[in-house]
Design a protein that fits this description.
Elements lengths: L2 H18 L6 E5 L3 H7 L4 H22 L3 E8 L7 H20 L1 H5 L2 E6 L7 H14 L5 E9 L1 H18 L9 H5 L12 E4 L11 H5 L4 E4 L9 H32 L5 H10 L6 H16 L1
Parallel strand pairs: 1-2, 1-5, 2-4, 3-4, 5-6
Length: 306
């Protein structure tokens, strides 16, 4: 297919997806996989793949702002990535340094009021990269319209283990009683990072796993997950919109499940509880087929007459 026809087809598909989407998840997390494989397929160095991936990151930031996403977390460098060749990591660190400073000064970031934060064991990163992180955070600290978290030297298990150890030390010191340990207590001992739970995880590159990414914020919230085959540099707006549609479909399915449970309650109650049951039916009316609602409402009327 000619490239012009392909572009037209893609734009048409994007418009179709945009019409199908009613809203957006509040917090999207992305595992940006495939930079090195993309470079290899194009006969280039790994650093070239990372640079191409950085351009995709810029576009995704715009797409998130356009559809109303309030928080975006990017898995830029995991603790396991330290095992890569040092020269490759150093070139990636240089690129991250460059892009963080570039983002911090970019008009699009300030126009969209994007707040940039790094999460992870940032003390393990080179001094120059930590300086870039501090620069980006300070330049965008006053914004709160869209929060951009960059996960650097991040590992989900390490994060949870650190929180558990911190909690144990608090108990040992007598600052915290075992009975006082709850979700909020653990949450405040995690890395200073995401402001809210994750609604949708996107992973590019074809692998179908979440790779130790935000287990507390994503798995605990039963986040929707969207896996796709394009490498991160080739991730397109149509892929992003398909991910949003996946999230909406999952949310709609969850609502239907709650609605059917409510209707089961209607069948089970009577007498003084009937008014409350009818209120439940009304609340979930839009999520169930009309015939199912009519049948249950008929049963309710019969129960009232008896």
């Amino acid at each position: 297919m000619p490239s012009s026809a392909r572009r037209l087809l893609d734009r048409t598909y994007e418009r179709l997806l945009e019409r199908e989407i009613d809203g957006a998840p509040t917090h999207v997390a992305v595992i940006q996989d495939g930079n090195r494989r993309y470079a290899d397929e194009h006969g280039k160095e790994a650093a070239d793949g990372h640079r191409a991936g950085a351009k995709t990151t810029e576009r995704v930031l715009d797409w998130c702002a356009d559809v109303g996403v309030e928080e975006l977390t990017l898995y830029a460098f995991s603790t396991e990535n330290f095992d890569r060749p040092p020269e490759e990591n150093e070139r990636l660190f240089e690129l991250l340094d460059e892009k963080l400073r570039e983002f911090a000064d970019a008009e699009r970031v300030h126009d969209r009021e994007v707040s940039i934060r790094a999460i992870g064991e940032t003390d393990r990163l080179p001094d120059h990269l930590r300086d870039a992180i501090e620069y980006a955070e300070n330049r965008t600290r006053r914004y709160n319209r869209l929060r951009l978290n960059v996960a650097l030297a991040y590992g989900g298990r390490a994060e949870l283990l650190g929180a558990a150890r911190d909690t144990a030390r608090a108990v040992e010191r007598g600052d915290l009683a075992p009975g006082e340990i709850d979700a909020s207590e653990i949450d405040r001992r995690l890395y200073e990072g995401p402001a809210r739970d994750v609604d949708l995880i996107i992973r590019t590159g074809g692998d179908e796993r979440t790779s130790n990414f935000l287990p507390w914020h994503a798995n605990g919230n039963e986040a929707a997950v969207f896996f796709c085959t394009p490498y991160w540099p080739a991730f397109a707006k149509k892929d992003f919109l398909r991910a949003i549609r996946t999230y909406e479909s999952r949310t709609e399915s969850w609502r239907r499940t709650r609605a059917r449970r409510a209707l089961a309650m209607v069948r089970a109650v009577g007498g003084a509880e009937l008014d409350e049951a009818r209120a439940i039916v009304e609340r979930f009316r839009e999520y169930l087929p009309r015939r199912e609602l009519e049948r249950v409402e008929g049963e309710s009327e019969s129960a009232a007459a008896d």
